[in-house]
Amino acid sequence: MCSLLWSSIVMCVALQLLQLGIVHPSPSHIRITHLPGQPQVQFQQFSGYVNVDDRNHQALFFYFAEAEKDAASKPLVLWLNGGPGCSSLGVGAFSENGPFRPKGEGLVRNQFSWNREANMLYLETPIGVGFSYSSDTSAYEGVNDKITARDNLVFLKNWFIKFPEYRNRSLFIVGESYAGHYVPQLAELMLQFNKKEKLFNLKGIALGNPVLEFATDFNSRAEFFWSHGLISDTTYKVFTSVCNYSRYVREYYNGAVSPVCSSVMSQVSTETSRFVDKYDVTLDVCLSSVFSQTKVLNPQQVTETIDVCVEDETVNYLNRKDVQSALHARLVGVQRWSACSNVLDYELRDLEIPTITVVGNLVLEGIPVLVYSGDQDSVIPLTGSRTLVHKLAKMLGLKTTVPYRVWFEKQQVGGWTQVYGDILSFATIRGASHEAPFSQPERSLVLFKSFLEGRPMPQEF
């Protein structure tokens, strides 16, 4: 029962709204005091919800790790994982480039965490992913790129209300896989919003093994398989002439795979083998399911079982009640947190919308762009990404400012790079998978640092 005093009524109503989930706590209430099993650290962490639709009670969940040192002088980086429908918390933060990784009953430090160089904001998007939710489950149906970009923009606008000290901070957006759609489309909306009200201090975007143009990205898979010895000359020929991969994926999602494509894919699957991980062709297949964000990009019309022989520690950790309590997280409409959403119905035909043109528009607006590729990924191979970046540079009339060359991490070759017009860059990460910061954390951190500083990749060791 509320007191009749006006101040008491206001406080009481605010408390009731908070309990109903209509408003969310201030930053002081979303600070993480200590994650279960967490080693001692000096930086601050926050997590919680930001409403993106008050009327329908839709909220996106975030995890924010401030920089290890000098947080006030470091840029803000928004990280997005792909899928579509996979978690930036579980995949990005706790498995790739965040400050901790689950081990046993606790957490261990990631010595190559990206919050060494930036304040890292991880967003579970769209609604229905991870801890993000809608009180109306019909909102999970027909979600598409346009809806996702709009919600992500609203999230950032409202997040700055909670964290006003970051409003004018240099902002970068980085993501991988299907974030090749999320990131450019969000950046484009931010620039449009800035023309009405200057809010976003966007300084650049980086895209890792991204989906940028359906046919080029997917059809480069055949050459990658063949050049790495995974398929025969005969199979390579039919995979590039009789039925290429983009045609197969299109037929698969239209619900009618032709007999000829079924035959070709059966042969490809037999030769590449279920014992080779398509996201890292040099890695043994013994992988955790948390690294399944590319399952949408790699549909299995041919029955194939995956040998998951590593306990999925991230999934176990994030499903603990004490962990969810420490994160200020809750499960709404689902029984368990999962790395990739089981309730989201995404419009998969959006795969065919090219976002390389959006990337070009960003470059014309003066936004630096880096496209990087783990060179052992066959799902979105480096050859397709390199081709697309080169064509874009040519179309925009950008001259090569850094010729194709190696870059170094310590005393080893870290990968190869090329820069166009000092604004559009391509780089590979040697020995890296689709999730480059997971498989090559130290080399990925070198690339990330160079990107933030606007410098070419290290030419000397």
From TrEMBL:
Protein's cellular compartments: Secreted
Top enzyme class: hydrolase
Listed EC numbers: 3.4.16.-
MF-aspect GO terms: serine-type carboxypeptidase activity
GO biological process: proteolysis
A GO cellular component entry from the record: vacuole
Domain of life where this protein originates: Eukaryota
Keyword vocabulary terms for this entry: Carboxypeptidase, Disulfide bond, Glycoprotein, Hydrolase, Protease, Secreted, Signal
InterPro entries per record: AB_hydrolase_fold, Peptidase_S10, Ser_caboxypep_his_AS, Ser_caboxypep_ser_AS
Alphabetical list of Pfam families matching this protein: Peptidase_S10
Secretion signal span: 1-25
Family: Belongs to the peptidase S10 family.
Summary of the function given for this chain in its UniProt record: Probable carboxypeptidase.
Protein name: Carboxypeptidase
